[in-house]
């Protein structure tokens, strides 16, 4: 190992440990005039934590509001210690936060917190996801009636789906609107949330069970005719095609599909 | 919250080992005039009013994303203004493996943006796969110089362009340093052909923190290798200064800027504000102060040519 590599490892270990009085580090630094060298090395050790906590807080402002600053700062410091950054882009530093909250005490006792973070992370990912033209209703205008059953779909690259076990979406929506958050609840059945970007704006909305099921199958390449049959099995057969067509119109109007074409 | 540091010569090309611009097919980047760091708080005002700013510096990492609004806005702004790219994660002095994913992404952005130049800092940001998101100091040794020169050459070859490297603010220095920072920078530019971004505030901060005269730094840098100045604010903690970029530029830094202009001549100058972002009008006032200092120091010819270019640009826009 070169001397430069040794020095870099030494400094990095001191910074990660938050130890501004680390003997090994202080021994290689010049003692100059002004503040003691431990105090000056402390600028780096303090800045490391403060900067990452600030990044997490800016990424998740609604979580800060929901948790309160004290609990959030405690949690964020624990996250920073558990997850040294490996990304060159601070934009992605918080990406493990939802999992951290879901797996660690005491935060896992409040599963809505991890889900609030998942919603925000999905919105942020949709915000700067790959550019991709969205298909519209007009793309289907020339379609002959017999071609509809063979239509297959490609989701827009910005689309993400989440499954919430709590009323996190309700809490997130209330906080976003500047209202008081409702009390947390565990849902009887999981709620599917679909997150995407329409033009330049990231959006999120819940999907009903039937729509969520058909969306999932459509994303796997299942043709529209089969989706209608699935809808008929799920609920009233006589309105199945109408319901499926209504979902499809909604997907096209919202920019959820990159393409709708006959196979 | 405690103040946090920002995360962010006369060269004899006849010497053996020196790479001149003409040998590489690159020429010295032009004097762009007086610019600002592009910040999201000012997007609307810039797009709506097209203020007369000569150029913008973008933070490369902010746009190293797949798509969406950031890149769309950047496309709109670059249609009206010259752009330079400034990164914080190149980690050119790191002894870790080169980060090829980062370099690929940086190169792709440079191909899209076609900046006048691409800059980053003479520092390291982490080793062993960790990024500390800080601009960390290096020992000024021959060993470090050799390592960094080879990295600069590698990156320059990969990007197909010469890098511009900035001196960082430091709060500690290594007992085993063998030369002053300005000598290290001079040798780095001599050996690799990279250009220098002379951060006037960082020189002031480091000089105060380490107890030397900033003019010694200034006089130790080869005059023809500096292509950009940063002007920024700092937090004075009494015994030391932290480079926070959350205050207006201090009088002392403006005074050092005057001396830098006197030594380096017309060099593209910008105000770099990263926190506590004020209205655009406040930054334009600071920029105007820099412009007035330049008008007093520089030969009028150099600024007249710039004014002609600027007027022509905004007439066409």
Descriptive account of the structure:
The complex is a heterodimer of chains A (263) and B (317). Chain A has 263 residues and is an alpha+beta fold. Helices cover 51% and strands 14% of the residues of chain A. Chain A has eleven helices and five strands, in the order H-H-H-H-H-H-H-E-E-H-E-E-H-H-H-E. Chain A has helices spanning 3-17, 23-28, 37-59, 61-67, 69-82, 97-103, 111-127, 168-176, 209-219, 224-234, 240-254; strands spanning 151-155, 160-166, 186-198, 201-207, 257-262. In chain A, the strands form two sheets. Chain A has a three-stranded antiparallel beta sheet with strand order 2-3-4. Chain A has a two-stranded antiparallel ribbon with strand order 1-5. In chain A, helix 1 (3-17) packs across helix 3, helix 9 (209-219) runs antiparallel to helix 10 and helix 10 (224-234) packs across helix 11. The longest helix of chain A has 23 residues, at 37-59. Chain B has 317 residues and is of the alpha/beta class. Chain B has a single domain (21-316), classed as TIM Barrel. In chain B, strand 1 (34-37), helix 2 and strand 2 form a beta-alpha-beta unit. Chain B has helices spanning 21-24, 43-49, 69-78, 100-113, 142-159, 181-192, 200-210, 214-219, 251-264, 280-297, 300-316; strands spanning 34-37, 56-59, 83-86, 118-121, 163-166, 195-199, 226-231, 235-236, 241-242, 268-271. In chain B, helix 5 packs across helix 6 (181-192) and helix 9 (251-264) packs across helix 10. Chain B is built from eleven helices and ten strands. Classes of the chains: A alpha+beta (263), B alpha/beta (317). Chains A and B meet through helix 1 and helix 3 of A and helix 3 and helix 5 of B.
């Amino acid at each position: 190992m070169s001397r430069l590599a040794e020095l870099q490892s030494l400094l990095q270990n001191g910074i990660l440990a938050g130890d501004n009085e680390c003997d090994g580090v202080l021994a290689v630094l010049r003692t100059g005039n002004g503040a003691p060298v431990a105090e000056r090395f402390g600028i780096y050790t303090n800045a490391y934590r403060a900067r990452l906590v600030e990044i997490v807080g800016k990424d998740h402002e609604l979580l800060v509001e929901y948790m309160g600053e004290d609990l959030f700062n405690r949690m964020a410091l624990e996250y920073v210690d558990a997850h040294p950054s490996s990304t060159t882009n601070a934009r992605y530093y918080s990406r493990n936060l939802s999992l951290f909250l879901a797996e660690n005490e005491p935060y896992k006792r409040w599963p809505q917190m991890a889900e609030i973070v998942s919603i925000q992370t999905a919105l942020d990912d949709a915000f700067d996801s790959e550019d991709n033209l969205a298909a519209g209703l007009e793309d289907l205008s020339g379609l002959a009636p017999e071609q509809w059953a063979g239509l297959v779909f490609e989701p827009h690259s910005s689309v993400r789906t989440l499954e919430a076990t709590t009323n996190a979406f309700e809490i997130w929506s209330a906080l976003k609107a500047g209202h008081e958050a409702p009390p947390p609840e565990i849902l009887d059945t999981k709620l599917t949330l679909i997150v995407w970007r329409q033009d330049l704006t990231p959006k999120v909305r819940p999907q009903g069970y039937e729509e969520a099921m058909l969306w999932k199958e459509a994303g796997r390449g299942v043709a529209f005719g089969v989706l209608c049959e699935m809808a008929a099995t799920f609920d009233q057969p006589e309105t199945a095609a109408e319901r499926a067509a209504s979902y499809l119109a909604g997907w096209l109007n919202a920019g959820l599909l990159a393409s709708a074409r006959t196979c | 919250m405690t103040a946090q540091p920002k995360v962010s010569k006369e060269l004899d090309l006849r010497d053996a080992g020196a790479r001149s611009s003409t040998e590489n097919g690159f020429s010295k980047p032009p004097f762009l005039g007086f610019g600002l760091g592009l910040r999201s708080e000012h997007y609307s005002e810039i797009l709506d009013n097209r203020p007369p700013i000569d150029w913008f510096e973008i933070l490369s990492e902010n746009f190293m994303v797949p798509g969406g609004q950031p890149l769309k806005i950047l496309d709109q702004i670059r249609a009206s203004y010259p752009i330079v790219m400034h990164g914080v994660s190149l980690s050119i002095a790191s002894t870790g493996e080169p980060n090829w994913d980062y370099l690929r992404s940086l190169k792709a952005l440079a191909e899209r943006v076609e900046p006048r130049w691409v800059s980053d800092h003479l520092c390291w940001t982490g080793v062993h796969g960790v990024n500390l998101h800080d601009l960390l100091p290096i020992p000024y040794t021959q060993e470090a110089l050799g390592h960094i020169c080879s990295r600069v050459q590698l990156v320059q070859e990969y990007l197909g362009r010469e890098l511009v490297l900035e001196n960082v603010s430091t709060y500690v220095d290594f007992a085993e340093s063998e030369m002053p920072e300005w000598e290290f920078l001079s040798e780095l530019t001599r050996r690799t052909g990279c250009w220098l971004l002379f951060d006037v505030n960082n020189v002031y901060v480091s000089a105060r923190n380490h107890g030397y005269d900033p003019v010694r730094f200034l006089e130790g840098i080869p005059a023809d290798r500096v292509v950009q100045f940063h002007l920024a604010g700092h937090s004075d903690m009494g015994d030391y200064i932290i480079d926070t970029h959350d205050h207006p530029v201090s009088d002392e830094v403006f005074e050092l800027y005057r001396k830098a202009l006197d030594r380096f001549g017309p060099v593209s100058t910008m105000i770099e504000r990263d926190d506590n972002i004020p209205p655009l009008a406040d930054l334009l006032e600071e920029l105007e102060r820099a412009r007035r200092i330049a008008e007093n120091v520089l030969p009028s010819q150099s600024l007249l040519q710039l004014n002609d270019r600027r007027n022509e640009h905004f007439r066409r826009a």
